[in-house]
Structures are given as structure tokens and as C-alpha cells.
Design goal:
- Helix content is 6%, strand content 43%.
- The chain folds into six domains: 2-23 and 242-343, Sandwich (Immunoglobulin-like); 29-224, Jelly Rolls (Sandwich); 349-435, Immunoglobulin-like (Sandwich); 442-587, Toxin - Anthrax Protective Antigen, domain 1 (Alpha-Beta Complex), CATH 3.90.182.10; 593-691, Immunoglobulins (Immunoglobulin-like, Sandwich); 694-863, Sandwich (Jelly Rolls).
- It is mainly beta and 867 residues long.
- Strands 1, 4, 5, 7, 13, 14, 15 and 17 form an eight-stranded antiparallel β-sheet that branches. Strands 36, 37, 39, 41, 42, 45 and 48 form a seven-stranded antiparallel β-sheet that branches.
Length: 867
């Protein structure tokens, strides 16, 4: 203890003399391009001499955020000579990438940076996507994604600060825009980024010479650690950041001692520092009495030693929180972030497998983290809780692993670890896990064609773990052009966040707990960038409560997608290593499933019928419906929420006219009087009725008569004077295309493409919808018609609508039809010389001799006045 005190006090003295020198340079900084001077070479200001070589059109621009910027045009880029980049400087266990960006809307993705291994794996993907989202993605070897965040909304033509961080140890990945968290993932298991840039590293263009960054970039930074939010704000603002930053121990770290020296880097103008330390986040955040450690000029603070805070020592098993407020000479205070560190307990902790884990293999090896200052460990193991809890006298061992030998399947085991060290003998708690059984599985429905329409086979599949290659899943299905839907229940062992990793060569969708969490149905075939001839792994993390949750996965494959068919579904969590979901975790779908509207859906028509798919053994269905979630959850056949019984084959219910902007809850119980396990109580699903009337949201059209979009919206296909074509004339069915547009959408999954050409015999271009029953556009007090349109750069002409033949020209900016974004057009119904209670036709058109182009329309609605 005396030596520890001398060391701490000596460091305090040195740090006090050093003062603000702590903030000088960050050893983890790999590259900093200020872009203040751009010539043939871009100078690296990090001190590491990682200067970049300009290739193509990258020029200096004086209009940067901090002095000058680099202007990227015509696929120009900055080459980092990845093949010769020092291996010790390549981020592998942690990374931060940040830059100021100002991009033009070109209709393409904008790569901020890209690096690729010699094996062809793209590693680092920070980009602004064509669909207006930010992307922060990292991959491991073999194109296996570590994570792929796509979130936020890009404002084209404006300066934005982009930053992405990742830390392998914590498993946390964060996307920041303008210093604020846009999306955060906490992965169950952190994975290393390969330290291999031999195939190249670039700023402003992908290694495949795609995704050209077009616009301005300023202050590009690359670090080998994950910066905190406050540190990123310092990077974003440059000089003059007033807050404390750079905590040590790092925020969230485990500290293996009962004393600590807290260090930080001072804010730019700080002359002293207020220190707060305590065991409650809320107390430290609010500066509660007892947490204030004093005001000081040193950027170091000692706790856990005699004469300092916590003189009796920090308590094992406790998380401590601390905050530094920076004080300027004027007395101005800049409150700091709350940081934390954890002193581990003296008992064994963090068991692997986790306490309560299920579906373990019978050859599992046990592991744990040793208690603080523990040297030896005693293992007690068995299949009886009381025997393990009361056991004693086993031999101690130095290792923190234990092999119990081959275990029985479908059985619960108990184990306990006692620790011996500086604190003496520390008895551990009893943990448990259960090995996997042999039952379980999913219902697999197989279809010919990629649209899940022509059913040919049903069977029970134990897992989703198939590599059919070019052979196909079954003779009835064939080896090309097929789709599959797996349906079942998933046994969730522990309430926590689970990550799902579908790895596919084909298109896929995944629902968990009745929520669509991954939709990559259209990625293959339609977009040539996905024709990579190897499987692609996707990722999504969701929080699930312990218990049974529904799961549905759909898969589509054609050999033209490239490569052989592969479909595998992995999962993992903080307490469970990543693995293919085992057979024992699945069971056949005995509950009602696949609700429509989907669970949690919003903006649903007020005249909606709810539908579902029946459970495996159902003979009938009991329906419950209402506006109180708990009432629906607890309802019985004697409750007012009970809506009656439906026979098998009648999986729908009409609740009548719904109230505007109201959330409804519903439940379907499956009944079979001949099965002793009946009834099977259903999940409580919900949807919210729209706060507007829907004229057309384009979601009900498909590729089959009479529901094709052109059957409702009449165009000029047979009229040479009308240059309009509604929908794609010849969709590539093999690639999964449709008559409607499925990528450029305002809401939902579909929009209407309108192609127009007034350059030949056509004098106008117009699509008209005639209502079979006249519409009353005054009901519920609606006053405004709203439609949304999306343009293309080459469009010309004058946009208009006609209501009962009365024409209204678009009154916004003329070039709005050229913008690759959704534009809202509002029309006051009172301004039209028509009877709004008798609307029979609605037309959309484009005037102008020689006009031609493509427009997309979606979400035509009627709104009431804003209160």
C-alpha cells in the first residue's frame, strides 16, 4: 500500500507540473488531413507522415469549416498507399473516423474512406448513401460484417460532421452526426478489424472505383481508439473546446485496484477544475452533496487511499461515476460528461456460459473472470442445486476454465466457483445452464419462383443452415428460381439484447417478435453491386424479453444472382457467444403469426381489416380487439374486448371504422379442443390509425390481374397523344423487379413510377385514377390534398394534377421535379371549382412540348386543419 501511495503521489506531482501538456498530442491519432493545403500531396498533420497522394480531381477550396477544404470531383481521391501502410498504425481493436463533409446529391453513394485486404474484403465503410442515410460499417475477414449501421438523414449541400467509433473490448459501435449520437450498437462479441490494407486505402473513392465522394471535405481524422462524445466534439470544433476530455481510466473501464488516480485533459480555457465522484450516476450528474471532491488546478485526482477521497479504499464490485467541470478565469463553468469505471468483485464473476443459458453443446467448457486479487479457484459442479450450493473441500486450481466432460443432452447443470486470494476465501453463487435437446425446428414452406406465390412443399427444418450451392433444396422445388418462408417460435433464454446475423447468397427478410428487423429482399439481382458471387452477412440487434417469441425468415434465390444458394442464421448476445441458432431454440408455430397490419405499424387506413396466419395445430381462432393494451392482454371470452370465434380458413377480422390517430391492440388465441395444450395464447399486436385520410399509398398493388398499378392508374399506353407510362413496362421478374417501384419510396414499400415523353406525337403526359365510388373529400373536416413526388436530374416540364378535370399546376420551384428527394405538394381543396363531396377522378400529369423524364409518386393523403 505504501509503494502504491508513493507511485500515485509522484504521478500527481508530475502531472501538476505538466499542466495542459496532457492535451498536446493523442498517441492514438493515425492521420489528420486539415486540407488547408491541397496539391499533389495532402500533408498529414498527425506527425506520422502518412501523407496522401492526390489522384484525379481533388483541389483546394478556401471555403472549409476550419480554413481550407478539399474539393472532390470526377471520382478524384486521396491515395494512402495501403500496401505500404505501417501495420502498427492500422486500427484493429478500436477505431474513430471523423470528417467534415458537404456533399452534392448525385444519386450515388459518397465514400468518405475505404480500405480493402489483399483477399478482397472491404473493411471500413463510412459513407453518405444515395438514399439520404449515413453509413458506418466495418467488416472482418471474408466480408463478414462486424456491424453495418445505416441511419440518420443527410442534408445535401450543407456542412455536416460525420464520425464513427468502434471498440472491440466493449463491442460498442456508434455513429455521430454533428457531435450527436444517431445510432449505437452494443454487439454481444467484439471482433477485430483485420490489419491488412494491401489492396488499398483511399479517401474519397472505394477501392473498386465506385461511390465517388463529390463535394467538399475538411478535417479528416483517423484514430486507433474509440473517442468519447466529448472528445469527438473537440475534434469537430477544433481549437477552443471548453470541456474536460480524455478520461483515464477510460469511460466504462474495469479498474483492477481499490485505489485510483483519475486523469483528464483540460478544456481550452480552464484555470481550475471541479471534481465530482460517487457511486450513483444521478448524484454525480446532479452534483449532489457528498460527491463534490473540491476545486483544484491539477488534472489528476486520487481516491481510495488514506488522506484522499474514500480513505478506506474503493469497494470491490462497485461502479464509480465521476465528472469534471471546467472553470474559466471569469468564473464561467463548463459542465463535463459523467464517466465511470468499475472495481470488480472479489468473487468469481462473468460466467461463460452465462447464468441461465440454454441450448449448450454437451461438450461445453466453463470459464469465468477471477475475483479481484484472487489467485486460486475451486470448482463445484453437478446436476443438483443443493448439492452444489452446499459442497466444499474440492482441490483448488490456478486456471479460470474447467472441462466438466461430456454432458447429457436436454439437462440443467449447476456450478459454483470459490475464490482464494488477498481477501481470503470468497464463496461464489450457484450458476446454471441447460444443454440442448434434440427436438424443435421450424416450418419451412417452399415455393417455385422468387415471390413466395407457388407453394410446392412444406417440411420441418431443424435449423436455418443450408449451403445448397447449385443443387437446390428439393427435387420438387428445383435448383433455380425458388423462395422459402420459415415460420416458428424462438425460445429466448435471458432478457437482453440479441444480435441476429443472416448470411445469405440471395434475397432475405427477417422478422423477430413480429417486427421486421432486416429487409434485404431487393438487394440481389436488381442492384449489380450485390452480384458478388459470395454470401453476404447482415446484422441487426434487438432487445428481447425472456420467453417465447415469433420468428419468420424469407429467402429467395436465382442462379443469376451469382454463386450458389447459401442461407444461414446466426445469433449472439452479451451472455451467449455467436452461433447458428440451434434446433432446440426453435419450435413449430403453434401460435397465430404474421399479423397484418404488421405489429407496431403506423398510418393505417381507418377502414382496415386485420389478418393473420394460423398456428400449426389450430382448429379455430378467438379474436380480442381494443384500445387498452393490458385489457387486451388479460382479456377472456367474457371481456368486452372479445370479438368472437373464427373458423380455420377465416383468418381475418373487420373492426369497423377506426378513430383517427388512435392505437389499437389485438390478440388471436389458437384453439383446438382435441389438443390438451390448447389454447395457445397469442401475442398482443398493435397498430396506429392515420391522422389523415389515405387516397392512395400504392401499397395494395401487385403483379397479378387485376391488381397491377396500371389497371388502376390509366396511362397513355394505347393513346399516342398521351406520353405517360405508369409502372415498369417490362420488369425483370428473375431479378425480383415489379411493376411498382420498391426502392425509391416515401413511406411503406411501394411507390408509383411515372415515365413521360412529350417529344413525339404526344402533346401531354397524364395518368388518371377513376374512383368506382365517388369520394367525399370533406369527411372528418379534411381541407388539404397532399401528394409526395420524387424527381430526377434530367426531368423537364410542368407538373400538374386534375381533380374531376379541374387542373392545378405545381406552384413550387420549377426545378423541384429535378431533385432526387421527396417533395411535399399541398393543395387547398377550397381553391378548386369542384364539389369536394363528389370526387370521381384524380389525374397526375406533366405539360410542356418536348418534356420528358421520370417521376415517382407516393402517399396521396387528405389532411384536416392543423389545430
Amino acid at each position: 500500500m505504501r509503494g502504491e501511495m508513493i507511485c500515485l503521489l509522484s504521478c500527481v506531482l508530475v502531472l501538476a507540473l505538466a499542466g495542459s501538456a496532457l492535451a498536446a498530442d493523442d498517441a492514438s491519432l493515425v492521420i489528420r488531413y486539415s486540407f488547408d493545403d491541397v496539391g499533389k500531396i495532402v500533408t498529414d498533420q498527425s506527425g506520422n507522415a502518412h501523407h496522401g497522394t492526390v489522384q484525379g480531381r481533388v483541389t483546394a477550396d478556401p471555403a472549409g469549416v476550419h480554413n481550407g477544404a478539399a474539393s472532390f470531383t470526377d471520382a478524384g481521391f486521396v491515395d494512402l498507399d495501403g500496401g505500404n501502410f505501417p501495420l502498427e498504425d492500422i486500427p484493429t481493436s478500436a477505431i474513430t473516423l471523423a470528417a467534415w463533409v458537404k456533399c452534392e446529391d448525385t444519386g450515388d453513394h459518397h465514400a468518405i474512406f475505404d480500405a480493402r485486404t489483399n483477399a478482397g474484403s472491404w473493411l471500413v465503410h463510412p459513407e453518405l448513401r444515395a438514399d439520404g442515410q449515413f453509413r458506418w460499417a466495418l467488416r472482418a475477414s471474408g466480408m463478414s460484417p462486424i456491424f453495418d449501421i445505416q441511419a440518420g438523414s443527410v442534408t445535401w449541400g450543407q456542412w455536416l460532421h460525420y464520425a464513427g467509433t468502434y471498440d472491440k473490448e466493449s463491442g460498442r459501435a456508434v455513429l455521430y452526426v454533428n457531435g450527436e449520437v444517431v445510432s449505437q450498437l452494443d454487439l454481444p462479441t467484439g471482433r477485430e478489424i483485420p490489419g491488412d490494407w494491401r489492396d488499398g486505402a483511399r479517401v474519397g473513392l472505394s477501392i473498386g472505383n465506385a461511390r465517388p465522394f463529390t463535394g467538399l471535405m475538411d478535417e479528416f481524422h483517423l484514430f486507433k481508439r474509440a473517442l468519447s462524445q466529448s472528445e469527438l466534439k473537440q475534434v469537430m470544433h477544433g481549437e477552443g473546446w471548453p470541456h474536460a476530455f480524455g478520461p483515464s481510466p477510460a469511460d466504462g473501464a474495469t479498474h483492477q485496484r481499490t485505489s485510483v488516480r483519475l486523469d483528464w485533459s483540460a478544456g481550452e480555457s480552464a484555470v481550475s477544475h471541479d471534481v465530482y465522484l460517487g457511486e450513483s450516476f444521478d448524484d454525480v450528474n446532479g452534483g449532489a452533496e457528498g460527491t463534490f471532491g473540491g476545486n483544484q488546478t491539477s488534472t489528476s485526482f486520487v481516491a481510495g487511499l488514506s488522506g484522499f477521497a474514500y480513505p478506506q479504499g474503493l469497494v470491490p464490485g462497485t461502479t464509480y461515476y465521476w465528472r469534471i467541470d471546467e472553470i474559466e478565469a471569469s468564473g464561467t463553468t463548463h459542465a463535463g460528461d459523467v464517466w465511470s469505471f468499475r472495481v470488480p468483485p472479489t468473487t468469481a464473476h462473468d460466467p461463460a456460459p452465462a447464468d441461465g443459458a440454454k441450448f449448450l453443446e454437451t461438450d461445453v467448457e466453463l470459464g469465468w473472470t477471477a475475483g479481484l486479487n484472487s489467485k486460486l479457484h475451486t470448482v463445484y459442479f453437478g446436476d443438483n442445486f443443493d448439492e452444489v450450493n452446499n459442497a466444499s473441500g474440492e482441490r483448488m486450481q490456478p486456471n479460470t476454465t474447467y472441462d466438466p466432460g461430456l454432458l447429457e443432452s436436454d439437462k440443467t447443470y449447476y456450478w459454483r466457483i470459490d475464490e482464494f486470494g488477498a481477501a481470503g476465501l470468497q464463496m461464489g453463487q450457484v450458476w446454471s445452464f441447460k444443454t440442448a435437446g434434440t427436438g424443435g425446428g421450424l416450418r419451412g414452406d417452399y415455393y417455385t419462383g422468387v415471390d413466395l406465390q407457388d407453394h410446392v412443399l412444406s417440411r420441418t427444418d431443424p435449423q436455418i443452415n443450408f449451403n445448397w450451392g447449385l443443387s437446390g433444396p428439393d427435387q420438387e422445388v428445383g435448383d433455380d428460381n425458388y423462395s422459402i418462408r420459415w415460420t416458428g417460435d424462438l425460445d429466448v433464454p435471458i432478457s437482453e439484447t440479441y444480435s441476429f446475423y443472416p448470411k445469405v447468397q440471395g434475397g432475405m427478410r427477417l422478422w423477430v417478435d413480429d417486427q421486421l428487423i432486416i429487409d434485404k429482399w431487393q438487394d440481389r439481382g436488381i442492384d449489380e453491386r450485390w452480384q458478388d458471387h459470395f454470401p453476404v452477412e447482415h446484422h441487426k440487434a434487438v432487445y428481447l424479453e425472456e420467453g417465447t417469441r415469433s420468428i419468420v425468415m424469407e429467402f429467395a434465390y436465382r442462379q443469376s444472382f451469382g454463386g450458389g444458394a447459401v442461407v444461414v442464421l446466426f445469433w449472439g448476445s452479451p451472455s451467449m457467444p455467436r452461433q447458428i441458432i440451434p434446433q432446440a431454440a426453435f419450435s413449430l408455430p403453434v401460435r397465430a403469426n404474421r399479423p397484418s397490419p404488421s405489429n407496431g405499424a403506423a398510418d393505417i387506413r381507418q377502414t382496415t381489416t386485420v389478418d393473420w396466419s394460423p398456428g400449426q395445430d389450430a382448429a379455430s381462432h378467438q379474436v380480442y380487439f381494443g384500445v387498452d393494451e393490458e385489457a387486451v392482454r388479460n382479456a377472456t371470452t367474457g371481456s368486452p374486448e372479445y370479438r368472437g370465434s373464427k373458423t380455420l380458413g377465416s383468418e381475418s377480422y373487420d373492426p369497423g371504422l377506426l378513430e383517427w390517430d388512435t392505437t389499437y391492440y389485438w390478440r388471436v388465441d389458437e384453439i383446438n379442443d382435441l389438443n390438451p395444450e390448447s389454447p395457445w395464447t397469442g401475442s398482443v399486436w398493435s397498430f396506429t390509425a392515420a391522422d389523415f385520410l389515405i387516397v392512395d399509398d400504392f401499397e395494395d398493388y401487385n403483379d397479378y390481374p387485376p391488381d397491377e398499378i396500371y389497371s388502376t392508374w390509366a396511362d397513355g399506353y394505347l393513346d399516342t397523344t398521351n406520353g405517360a407510362t405508369v409502372g415498369y413496362l417490362l420488369p425483370n421478374w428473375a431479378a425480383g423487379e415489379h411493376y411498382v417501384e420498391t426502392n425509391i419510396v416515401h413511406g411503406g414499400y411501394q411507390s408509383m413510377p411515372l415515365f413521360y415523353d412529350n417529344t413525339s406525337t404526344a402533346t401531354y403526359s397524364e395518368a388518371e385514377r377513376a374512383f368506382a365510388v365517388a369520394q367525399d373529400w370533406t369527411q372528418d373536416g379534411v381541407e388539404t390534398l397532399v401528394l409526395h413526388f420524387h424527381g430526377a436530374a434530367e426531368n423537364t416540364g410542368q407538373l400538374y394534377v386534375k381533380i374531376n378535370g379541374s387542373k392545378v399546376s405545381y406552384d413550387g420551384n420549377a426545378d423541384d421535379i429535378q431533385q432526387r428527394r421527396w417533395t411535399k405538394w399541398s393543395i387547398a381543396l377550397a381553391s378548386l371549382p369542384v364539389n369536394p363531396q363528389n370526387i370521381t377522378t384524380l389525374s397526375i400529369g406533366i405539360d410542356g412540348a418536348g418534356a420528358r423524364g421520370t417521376l415517382y409518386f407516393d402517399d396521396i393523403r387528405l389532411y384536416r386543419p392543423v389545430p
